[in-house]
Amino acid sequence: MKGVKLAPIFVPRNTNSAMKRLFYVLYTWIIFVPLFLVLTLLTALTTIVGCMCGGERIFSYYPGMIWSRLACYLALCPVKVRGREHIRKGQSYIFAANHQGAFDIFLIYGFLGAPIKWIMKASLERIPFVGAACRAAGFIFVDNSSAKAAARSVRQAEKSLRGGASVAIFPEGSRTKTGKMRRFKRGAFQMAADQHLPIIPITLNGPFHVLSSGSLNLHSHRLEMVIHEEISIEGLDTTPQGLQEVADRTRQIIANDLWPEFRD
User: Fold this and answer.
1) Considering the domain 17-262, what is its CATH architecture?
2) Residue 96: beta bridge partners?
3) How would you list the strands of the sheet with 167-169, edge to edge?
4) Beta bridge mates, 186
5) 213, 146, 151: which is closest to 187 by C-alpha?
6) What is the SS3 string spanning the chain?
7) The predicted structure's pLDDT at residue 9
8) How many CB atoms lie within 10 A of CB 17?
């Protein structure tokens, strides 16, 4: 009516953001999770059968690499990689990375561009199909339940390295709770010294935002991996104190390329 003023309709500023988040939650549980579970099962079975038939060199890497890439693409996470030129073809390495979240594995395995064996927690061996596939692929499960079991794990890892493989490890030991790095343990660097292998530090950014430790809430977020120049172990002090200094140096190289929010 003439002369009557209507109150303005209040539209929250974060409406678009809330709608996008709702859409992504629905997408996660209706599309991503079912497809991811099917892909995981197919990848595990392909790896197991392929490795059992004598194709470990191919089937321990390529099915997992494709699975990892698809996981990132299905999660709607764009990936940026820098520094692949630092990897020499045919050279074995110890790849040491910070551990932000579950998507660290997909980022490294899918986009590193080099075949690797994983050094993993023994508890992961109990995951149905995945544990069997990892065993078939020759991945190393670290058992810290006793000194004897830990020593056996190290011997298994060194056997893989002597066979010409590269290994990937998270020297922090477990995923960060805050996105920031903890101090690096020197176990990986002891293996590098024992086998005379160079170390390549890897900086990971973004997995903490996609799926952090203890969370089931997946988020779409950009991912970045920075592959640094190798660190030669030759001529360095390989005493426990010297190796800890190498570990600290590796940690600092990784920290230099962390996004500001993840720095100490």
Assistant:
1) 3-Layer(aba) Sandwich (3.40)
2) 169, 201
3) 79-82, 223-227, 199-205, 94-97, 167-169, 117-121, 140-142
4) none
5) 151
6) CCCCCCCCCCCCCCHHHHHHHHHHHHHHHHHHHHHHHHHHHHHHHHHHHHHHCCCHHHHCCHHHHHHHHHHHHHCCCCEEEECHHHCCCCCCCEEEECCCCCHHHHHHHHHCCCCCEEEEEHHHHHCCCHHHHHHHCCCEEECCCCHHHHHHHHHHHHHHHHCCCCEEECCCCCCCCCCCCCCCCCHHHHHHHHHCCCEEEEEEECHHHHCCCCCCCCCCCCEEEEECCCECCCCCCCCHHHHHHHHHHHHHHHHHCCCHHHCC
7) 47
8) 10
Residue 52 tokens read as 């059992």
Report residue 87 as tokens.
């990897």
Nearest Cα to 210, choosing from 80, 72, 108, 98? Answer: 72
Side chain identity, residue 33: V
CB distance 231 to 201 below 8 Å? yes
Q: Is residue 97 predicted with pLDDT exceeding 90?
A: yes
Q: Which of 157, 121, 162, 123 is nearest to 138 (CA)?
A: 157
pTM above 0.90, yes or no: no
Could you report the per-residue pLDDT of 165-198, keeping only the tens digit for each? 899 999 998 899 999 999 999 888 988 998 899 9
